[in-house]
Amino acid sequence: MMKDCIYNDDSIIAIKNIKSNSIHSIISDIPYGIDYDDWDTLHSNTNSALGGSSIAQQKTSLFKRRGKPLNGWSEADKRRPQEYQEWVESWSNEWYRVLKSGSSVFIFAGRQFAHRVIVAFENSGFTFKDMLSWERDKAPHRAQRISCVFEKRGDTFNQQKWAGWRVANLRPIFEPILWFQKPYKTGGTLADNLIENEVGAWNENALTSWNIQRGALNHSNMFKVQVTTEDRKYHITQKPLNLMKLLVELVTKEKQIVLDPFAGSASTLLAARELNRHFIGFEKNKEIYDIAVKRLENTLDNKLVHQKRDNNDPKIRNGRSFRLIGSRTSTL
């Protein structure tokens, strides 16, 4: 499998073509399983209400469809957290296999099911290292005034009784970033692992420079990153490029390989490339894949070559990928 390449493929299947113990870090914004869209609905129980939308939802770019409430509409709905964990476990073992011992994994996870991701990764052998926090500069949200519900019912007593009270969540100003590590050899030392695999430590200089620029507490696990216009341009859940660059630089060295199995609009890949790291990405949605290709082409100012591949090859599913011309590519 080529380095410096993004594949229009399902990573759950395609990752099996990557050699064991060959990747230095995985950084990925995985689906949160909160019914944001079809690609984010990762449970088996659906009904007529799922996917509907209110007039207010139709007017916004945020959550245009109705998901399921936390307590569900039925007993079957309450299996959603377990089904999400099972989905994560369907690929977390492969992530473990391809990583070098001591490698770090950064996963953006929704607050609702982050604990399920942690359990799934621990079941696959990973060590849960920390939960970082990305603090956003803005975060739209909806929290309905419950008094309005009673007003529509003509219930003046309860309307007045519950004035000033809301339902739903507080403004989601932070987003969890789960930090996992593939353990190094039992009986070995971290220093020995660094010599063998060149992973397992974190880059103090990268973090110190970042915090000094933003007046943050040194070595803090909270990152405040502003979302720019460019960061909203390509994908509805796109993460800031500066944040992705910090994560890449925090746990990898130049020329090492960063993998993003859910590449989306390629923010992780672009960050890796700008920091002189190699990358591999997968994005199964053809429309989003094309956006990722165009973004890399425009930003890196490099010619790209589309590789025609044999669809009859059992190792290749969709036969679409691109790599950077002139980059030092090789197979894994």
TrEMBL record:
Family: Belongs to the N(4)/N(6)-methyltransferase family.
Natural source organism: Glaesserella parasuis ZJ0906
GO molecular function per UniProt: DNA binding; N-methyltransferase activity
Gene Ontology biological-process annotations: methylation
Keywords annotated in UniProt: Methyltransferase, Transferase
Gene3D superfamilies linked: Vaccinia Virus protein VP39
Pfam families: N6_N4_Mtase
Enzyme class: transferase
DNA methylase N-4/N-6 domain boundaries: 23-294
Record's keyword annotation contains Methyltransferase: yes
Name of the protein in its database record: Methyltransferase
SUPFAM superfamilies per UniProt: S-adenosyl-L-methionine-dependent methyltransferases
Superkingdom in the source lineage: Bacteria
EC number assigned by the record: 2.1.1.-
InterPro entries linked: DNA_methylase_N4/N6 (IPR002941), RM_Methyltransferase (IPR001091), SAM-dependent_MTases_sf (IPR029063)
